[in-house]
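Hey,
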Amino acid sequence: MRTLEKIKLIVYFAVRVIILVAGIMSVIRTDWVYFKDCSTALLITFVPDFVKKKLYLKLSVFIEIVLVLYIFAAIFLGETLLFFDKFFWWDIMLHSVSGLIFGYIGYKFAWLLTRNGKTGKLSPLFIVIFTFCFSVTIGTLWEIYEFIMDRTFGYRMQDDLFDTMTDLIFDSSGSLLYSVAGFFWLKQKIRRKVRENKDQFYNEAANETSDT
């Protein structure tokens, strides 16, 4: 087993055990709000596995590790242990990182469609636009979730309009950064492919000439 795979198993196990123990403690204290938060965090740690198996989306092991740690930091540390209140930069850091993470996932979705031939060949520009829009949409849906939780259960996930807009700006910044980097990477990959095909064409032509 590769080193990253071992690290992934350790991270998954440690995160889930920590959340599970916290959930059990909340039941003992009859703190049902805390228990709900722990249950939600625990369930969401299984999202990467669901995405891989049900959507046939291949994620790198490194991204799987980052994604689970992000879920742990956002749902468990941020909401349950109130890191959002204790550290002013916690929310900014998570929203910046989320733009990069979901930008990667959006890119993989677009690349999967291209690879399977379901949409024909997608241009690099379309792929990065899709990547950006996908990531920003996830960030927007999260803000809607926070609004619903605040209004329904009296949470304080959103302080005010400034907080919401700041979150969306950092989501968009991370998404834009990944999209721009992805665009130049794709363009470079296409140029390399064209160059390889051109060299292969010349080599085959030279071989045919020498045979005649």
